[in-house]
Amino acid sequence: MNKGIYIATLESHSGKSMISLGLMRTLLGKMMKVGYFRPIINDTPQGIKDNHIDTILSYFNLKIPYEDTFAFTRSEVIHERNKGKSGEIIDTIISKYKKLEEEFDFILVEGSDFSGEGSVFEFDVNTVIAKNLGIPVIIVVSGQKKTWEELLGNQQMAYRAFTDKEVQVIAMVSNKIQEENLELAKKNMQGFLPEEVGVFAIPLIDTLNNPTLKEIVIALDGKVLFGQDFLDNQTGNFGVGAMQLRNYLTTLKDESLVITPGDRADIILGALQANISSNYPRISGIILTGGLTPEESILKLIEGLSDIVPIISVQDGTFNVTNKVGDIKSNIYADSIQKIQTTISTFERYVSFDSLVEKLTDYEPQGITPRMFQYGLVQRARKSKKHIVLPEGNDERILTAAKRLIDMNLVELTLLGDADAIKKTVAKIQLDLDFSKINIIDPVKSTHFQDYAETFYALRKHKGVNMDMAKDRMSDVSYFGTMMIYKGHADGMVSGAAHTTQHTILPALQFIKTKPDVSVVSSIFFMCLEDRVSVFGDCAINPNPTAEELAEITISSAESASAFGIEPKIAMLSYSSGTSGKGADVDRVREATALVKKRRPDLKVEGPIQYDAAVDLSVGKSKLPDSEVAGQANVLIFPDLNTGNNTYKAVQRETGALAIGPMLQGLNKPVNDLSRGCTVADIYNTVILTAIQAQGI
């Protein structure tokens, strides 16, 4: 059975890293354990790790010792080859690969980078390695600065080189192609490749192709004077500020890198002012040349500005610096999270290896890992895009999550709030958000405002609501967003980053209301532990549920688990296991368990049961040896909010588990609540959950 894929190229800076990152994400979504291996890496200074390996291991949290992820450095290969030991090189590579193959379900192998001399030899080595490992190849070729004839020639040469050695080529990727030429690029590949070979074309993405300020600082050995926190800013273009300010301002473009002598205070201050002006493009940073820095009074003025881009001092003169900046090639580093996410979202937008991966192996995973679960969520959301409204449109975390969601083409989004204020916030945090792909609505200025107010009045007049009160409610973003769902103008809502749980949920209870067979709204968290995904409920809504409510929460949680691909094995948690415990609290859990068994005899449920007996197989078997749930529970129902909320947070903090949620259950249409301490990842995941709920699970 094949257990690997080899990613190969025939040139440097082909964008091979994008394929590695995107494909690793795909593989981890389908398999329990995926390894990573590079037969040959670039030479690095003592104590410095290979950047490709460091990025993959760090971002995907792969538990592989660094020394097991590669066989040789480039100079070691050349040295051994010159000694006539080519055979020994291949033997060592095979040995290290096979060691990983024994430990992992699948191995992603990334070929060498073609840095320095000897590229022809290097390409030949990659074909020999792939042949000896017995794994198929994905070929990546860059179209940047090539004619169509050159691109096609390179692709044909690479394909023949592998197939001549009887290495299966399963896909070819044309990378860094102009957007308008993508279909033509695919058509050209299809012209000479067999039908079974997948063909993909990826456009040149400026935000990935252009270096960040951090890369420029490293390349120029610069000193950061200001803006240390914004070194991930990416440059769109660069230019020298040598003319008078009034003329220089007209040359600024989006994400411009300003290069100017350090004593040109007029250019420095003018560029910073232009950056915060709505009449000029944003700049990415400023490089001060000649080893000169502004006078103390100018530095003090800069220090007091509310928005500061990175300002970097370098020793070289302006001419040399400009030439060096033009030669800097962009790379992806382990700490470049935004760049990694953009890379993966670009891959997922233009490449679909799912069917190809399925052909490579008949591996059947047992259970579901967090990576598989998260990958499945993304695929389900993308399959039927839903419209989600985010009432807290001016929150920086909301905006950052919105960009990621839009870039990955997962949902349609509406932000509520003042459009100018939102755009200013986007500019302030240097977020490259495409406003053409997102809706922004100011509730009181909306064409639907009057209709929404009249609808709310009609729904709530029996509760003493008049039209003035209805208009007041509709000016509130939570009420307006909920009404969008009620009227069918949105499919779901996510709020709570800046509002209380009550503020988020109350409008939904008032007019979205619960499903016909549900009397209590509850919540679950999907707890992504190291090797499994568990469902925790209720950890966010009901303080002290009755036995009847606890039974209903349990059934709702089991149905949610099933809907998301988790076969429910339910533990009704308490401070004792089985029949031994006495007291009102344990009796309530015992009664709730009986109700669940009566109403849903098809469900596997155990209760009352202690947490350790529920999740630890040895403990479970000792306490409840005949149970089909003990030690294997994946749906854990807590007896009250105090226990549930504290337990999920303790598990999250102590184990590093990712808690996705809370996801509310029981409403006619999905509304989900965030905590005010939520992260960008929390928002991103909750929006995806909401979109899937809106598909009618």
Automatic annotation (TrEMBL):
GO terms for cellular component: cytoplasm. One of its GO terms (molecular function) is phosphate acetyltransferase activity. Residues 215-325 form the DRTGG domain. Pathway: Metabolic intermediate biosynthesis; acetyl-CoA biosynthesis; acetyl-CoA from acetate: step 2/2. InterPro entries: DRTGG, P-Actrans_bac, P-loop_NTPase, P_AcTrfase, P_AcTrfase_dom1, P_AcTrfase_dom2, Phos_Acetyltrans/Butyryltrans, PTA_PTB. Its EC number is 2.3.1.8. Keywords: Acyltransferase, Cytoplasm, Transferase. CDD domains: DTBS (cd03109). It comes from the Bacteria. The keyword Iron-sulfur does not apply. Residues 373-691 form the Phosphate acetyl/butaryl transferase domain. Pfam families: AAA_26 (PF13500), DRTGG (PF07085), PTA_PTB (PF01515). Homohexamer. Involved in acetate metabolism. The N-terminal region seems to be important for proper quaternary structure. The C-terminal region contains the substrate-binding site. In the N-terminal section; belongs to the CobB/CobQ family. PANTHER family: PHOSPHATE ACETYLTRANSFERASE. NCBIfam families: PRK05632.1, PRK09653.1, pta. This is Phosphate acetyltransferase.
